[in-house]
Design brief:
Elements: E1 6-9, H1 13-24, E2 33-36, H2 44-48, E3 52-54, H3 57-62, E4 66-69, H4 73-83, E5 93-96, H5 103-110, E6 115-120, E7 130-136, H6 141-151, E8 155-159, H7 165-173, H8 175-192, H9 197-218, H10 222-229, H11 235-245, H12 248-263, H13 266-269
Parallel strand pairs: 1-2, 1-4, 2-3, 4-5, 5-6, 7-8
Antiparallel strand pairs: 6-7
Helix pairs in contact: 7-12, 8-9
């Protein structure tokens, strides 16, 4: 069990999922985790479970060692101003899950030489299947390992170069929506060819899960697995070619690129 108290500032979906994952994995007890939110009545159930809940961010920081910044980019500067008097660079490690904000951005706004690690999970964190990308510029290897161990409790983590973090936001965080839309489209196609909507959705979702697991469990390549299900003059290749003629791959690639561009300017626009 980790003995360092943790404060999660901005307890929305990501923050709460991380807290629950840490407790479920036995790394933390609820009483070691402070959850902050402007409307703390929304955290009443968590309080009953033993978590510390408060609307006072500065107080939560003062009583913790690890600080998770889990708010929107446009809310960050105000939050940093609020907690700056409570931050001790020799004591605190900051973990930022804020899109489009560099470690240097955080340090410069605080005016403090504090260690910052960025983490970009996705909403599958709620079921322990997040793909989390982790990066830093000056934090120690020990702190990188610590952050990785925290997010490994709620999925799979990978360390990347910090300049790729906005790209990670598009591919992994926004990507959840892209793949969900693909599954939704497949289920609508299933309904059009005769299945009831709820059956079509279940069939499409399980098929997508199976496709992903083929790649992850077999360390295979998509085209290798596609070749196994396409035969000459068959129905699979006919469907694939029709999708490509209508821009399926191109639309996905362009969507990811557009999301990455947007992610990179959210903080700058705030």
């Amino acid at each position: 069990m980790n003995t360092q108290a943790i404060a999660i500032l901005g307890s929305g979906n990501i923050g709460l999922s991380l807290a629950k994952g840490l407790v479920k994995a036995g790394i933390y007890q609820p009483e070691q985790i402070a959850l902050t939110r402007r409307n703390i009545s929304a955290l009443s159930i968590l309080k009953e479970q033993g978590y510390i809940t408060t609307s006072n961010n500065a107080e939560a920081v003062a009583n913790a060692t690890i600080i998770v910044l889990a708010i929107l980019p446009q809310q960050l500067n105000k939050l940093l101003d609020e907690i700056k008097p409570s931050i001790d660079p020799s004591k605190h490690l900051l973990i930022s899950v804020v899109s489009g904000v560099s470690c240097q951005d955080v340090r410069e706004h605080l005016g403090l030489d504090v260690q910052v690690v960025r983490a970009m999970p996705n909403t599958a964190i709620a079921i322990g299947h997040s793909m989390t990308c982790i990066a830093t510029d000056t934090a120690s290897d020990a702190n990188i390992s610590l952050v990785t161990s925290l997010f490994d409790t709620v999925g799979v983590s990978i360390r990347i170069n910090e300049e790729l973090m906005t790209s990670a936001t598009a591919l992994c965080a926004c990507g959840i929506a892209f793949f969900l839309r693909s599954i939704r489209a497949a289920s609508q196609g299933g309904t059009e060819i005769g299945f009831h909507a709820h059956d079509a959705l279940k069939m499409a979702a399980q098929t997508a899960k199976g496709a992903a697991d083929l790649l992850l469990q077999l360390a295979s390549h998509p085209e290798q697995e596609i070749d196994k299900v396409t035969s000459p003059k068959g129905c699979t290749i006919a469907g694939l070619n029709e999708m490509e003629h209508n821009g399926f791959s191109s639309a996905m690639i362009k969507g990811i690129k557009t999301s990455a561009e947007k992610a990179g300017i959210l903080y700058k626009q705030s």
